[in-house]
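Same chain as my last thread, 401 residues:
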Amino acid sequence: MAAAVRKGGGLVPPARGTRPRNRRELILAAAADLFYRRGYADVAMSDIAEAVGMGPSALYRHFRSKQHLLLQVVLDGIAPVRDALARSAVDDPDTVLRAVVAATLDHREAGVLWQREGRLLPPEERAEVHREVRAVTAVVTALIRKARPQLSAGQGEVLARSGLGVLLSPSFHRIDLPRPEYVRLLVDLCRAAVTAHPAALGPIAEAPAPAGVGLRSRREALLGAAVRMFAEQGYAGVAIEDIGAAAGIAGPSVYNHFESKADLLCAAVTRGVEWLLMDMTRALAGADDAEAALRVLLRSYVRFSVDRSDLVQLLVAEVSHLPTQARHRARQARVDYLMEWTRLLCAVRPQYGAAEARIRVHAALSAINDVARVRHLRDTDGVASTLVVVAGAVLGLTPPA
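reply #2:
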């Protein structure tokens, strides 16, 4: 039977007029590939139909809407990890870990689909995805605490989320290694994350934080609302009128400050990029050597990620929605930022080589981001110190004395 095959980063459809038995699976594979490469908002059902060599009307016989298809794609991205973890009752931990690593490399798009495209689902369907992710996290947390019973539930969850962040990090870059070498490295990095020694965790004091003196700038109010809403709902899921309403600015007054929704996104992404670059400049200027600079940079990034997880979410997930020139600038700035991390790590651990160092940097930052994305974890006292230790272990830094 005819089947779609991957070629050159896309899908070659089966010949028209053929009716492969696994058509539903082919549709899901084509949709996952297109959503991953182009983003949900920029993919039409007709694009997916073309990728599998069928008419759009036939596609609707399998999936009633594009949102329903997205839900199935996201859940299918979670399933291989869940299924690999289900073996934990019968297999030893190392075998289970290798199976999970293999699943994430086989479904490299999974992290982007969970964390970027899944936010565009309606609330009820998004809640279903969150339940699946929580179930996976709970299994990993239980495995960690079984091996390390002295850990609290919170410590176990932070380590579990960090380990999953490491495993999903290849979804956000295109660095490749020979398969056996890549499996070995990801197993080592995940093991480093989940065996790190977390700080003691406890709830933040119940006393409310000082309200502070509010800004009167309407531009800042709009920008703050936009950052928060883009991070929570995705750029494509927010209208500029919604942003104005959230900032208490009605109707056309919004356009006195920003020409368009894209202009708001440009301003938000630029702010996030410049914030990171300023922190990097400060870290490098105040350090005596590469290792000291890397440690200062790591602490700075953890604090930024915990304090401004909304901006991190934009930098990770929404840059593709920028206009062409702004998108190129933001991506180049991100490349430059990550290359500085890699340069420092290569200076500290020259035995890694450039490719491994880059993979370790992506894995460390992904571990941080995945924990900071979860509100009840980032609002926990001691989580920032724990993330410094975990990410340092992923980078291969020796724990400070």
